Amino acid sequence: QVQLVESGGGLVQLGGSLQLSCAASGTIFSISVMGWYRQDPGKKRELVASITMGDSRVYSDSVKGRFTISRDSAKNTVYLQMNSLKPEDTAVYYCRVEDVRGYDHDNDEYLYGKNYWGKGTLVTVSS
């Protein structure tokens, strides 16, 4: 089994900064894409940023120039540095990993092409 543990959310004032972290645990050989999504109550979950094994990055238009995604593949960890935060950035932020290859000891099987979500961490930006 692969588990994702997110950290770094909290309350911050307008213009402030936060860094989110998401560590994937388990027997993992590789993770193709690591990313962050966010969701407001009553709205669809949307992509914030993603990064591939080759360090190609995608950002939503709303965060370009303010957020930076990075990863440490040796630690199976993805980070989201959020600067110049705005009230509209308030949401639950979810980590997602795609195309995971590894080994599931609980079920004694190899993992190919599996995707996983974290449980989410709340970011609140006050004005």
Could you give the order of the helices and strands?
EEEEEEEEEEE
Unreliably modeled segments: none
Secondary structure category = mainly beta
User: Tell me, what's the shape?
Assistant: elongated
Treating each run of at least 4 consecutive H or I residues as one helix, how many helices?
0
Instruction: State the helical fraction.
Output: under 10%
Classify the beta-strand content into a percent band. Answer: over 45%
Strand count, sense and barrel status of the largest sheet are: 7 strands, mixed
Average pLDDT? 96
Cα radius of gyration in angstroms: 15 Å
- Distance between the amino and carboxyl termini: 40 Å
Number of strands: 11
